[in-house]
Amino acid sequence: MNEDQTAGEYCFRSLDAEFAGRDSEEVGNDVVLGLVVVTALAFDFTNGFHDTGNAMATTIATGALRPRIAVALSGVLNLIGAFLSLAVAATIASGLVDTKLVTLTVVAAGLTGAIVWNLLTWFFGIPSSSSQALIGGVIGAMLAAAGGQAVKWHNLVAKVILPAVLAPVIAVLVAATGTWLLYRISRGLTSGGRNHGFRIGQIGSASMVSLAHGTNDAQKTMGVITLALIANGTLPANATAPFWVILTCALAISLGTYVGGWRVIRTLGKGLVKIESRQGMAAQSSSAAVILLSASFGYALSTTHVATGSIIGAGLGKKGTEVRWNVAGRTVSAWALTLPAAGIVGAAAYGLASAVGGSAGVIVDLLILVAVSAVIYARSRASKVDHTNVNDEWTGVVTPAEPQPIAAA
After folding, report:
1. What CA–CA distance (Å, rounded) separates 217 from 185?
2. Cα(232)–Cα(236) distance, rounded to whole angstroms?
3. Crossing angle, helix 243-259 and helix 67-81, to 10 degrees?
4. I need a labelling partner for 298 at 20 to 30 A (CA). Which of 219, 314, 356, 405 fits?
5. What is the spatial distance between Cα 225 and Cα 94, in angstroms, rounded to a whole number?
6. Confidence (pTM)
């Protein structure tokens, strides 16, 4: 096979040529690769519904858009945004771990850690970082498989941990300043004119956040699938994501966004700050600016950290607005736990898969993941949050209060 042979020739060679002479181990690897790709797309789906609130929570909370329209618009823009850049995908694929030491079992275990953490935080309505969960899961599995030398610690600190610390602080400052300016500029407008104009502005700024989210977050799953393809020998080291990877990841995150992670939307839109349209526009504009700037530099930034910081900043920018610091504190605590918690689950999943051995180990991991996911989903149905009650008054918990029956006369 010469160096000029294209990736398309790899993908579309005839089945006879593909499988002739291959042993059962190679075929087994292809089965595992397929399972890993499906699991990665499942993570991308959870990333979509977990992070819908980053763009649309304040737009829904102020009534600028009805809930279903908001998540549909966000889904379309996430789909478009996924095609705009590949810088973050490159960081995930080869910037954080030594690709020569990565195996399909490592990738599957890392995805397990990420999905479990995403679903747990979604259940409790905590706006935690899907990005950090993914990175934590992969690094935990990598440490269990190959030790500390397999992780590029400098890149982890420079491109993941420092941005995770600095981004929400920057978002708070930018959003607080923007909110203060918007209130100063719009003092002379009538109440009706202000609300109408800024709600339109919210739609535009929320659209920018959705586009930025697709640009930033869909790439992370592209990077993981590319990592799996490299580990399987399907792609050479330092390869970029093939088009089919970009397309499937874009579709998965878009569909997840449309489903709507109503629990997290409720926390961001109602739990942190009782927000007005001017604050919502300032928060979303700040988020879009920070996320798009970070994506251009290839930083694996958490859009959740940025969006949460922007909403808090919008609350601080208007005098007299109550910021619910207990909700903010719980959220920040979850941020601090995300990398290690997802890492522990990833490492445990790798240990279990290794103990079972071979393709069967990966299959056992994924069956347990399906069972855990089903239990969390079933529990969530007992305290349902959806588009019909997401805007109910905040009562201190993510689940809205049950409507009281009307007493008989």
Report:
1. 34
2. 9
3. 170
4. 314
5. 11
6. 0.84
Q: What are phi and psi of 323, to 5 degrees?
A: -100, 125
The Cα–Cα gap between 199 and 202 comes to 5
Tell me the sheet residues that pair with 161.
none
Q: What is the pLDDT of residues 139-197, one digit of tens each?
A: 999 999 999 898 889 888 887 888 888 889 999 999 999 999 988 888 777 777 677 78
Q: In this structure, what token pair is assigned to residue 3?
A: 């160096």
What are the extents of the domains in the chain? 31-164+213-271+325-381
Q: Which of 258, 219, 256, 257 is nearest to 240 (CA)?
A: 219
DSSP state of 92: I
Digit-coded pLDDT (tens) for 24-55: 444 447 888 999 999 999 999 999 989 888 88
Q: Which residues contact 57 (CB under 8 A, 6 or more apart)?
A: 264, 265, 266, 267, 268, 269, 307, 311
Q: Which residues of the chain have pLDDT under 70?
A: 1-28, 85-94, 193, 295-296, 298-301, 402-409
**Residues 6 or more apart whose Cβ sits within 8 Å of residue 77:** 55, 207, 210, 211, 214
* CA-derived radius of gyration, the chain: 22
Residue 338: C-alpha distances to residues 334, 335, 352 (Å)? 6, 5, 21
Which amino acid type is present at position 282?
A
DSSP 100: G
Q: How many CA atoms are closer than 13 Å to the CA of 394, on its beta-carbon side?
A: 20
CA 253, CA 40: separation in Å to the nearest integer?
11
- For 342, the token pair is 């997802």
Tokens of 377: 């989903």
Q: What is the pLDDT of residue 371?
A: 97
Dihedral sign (CA 393, 396, 402, 404):
negative
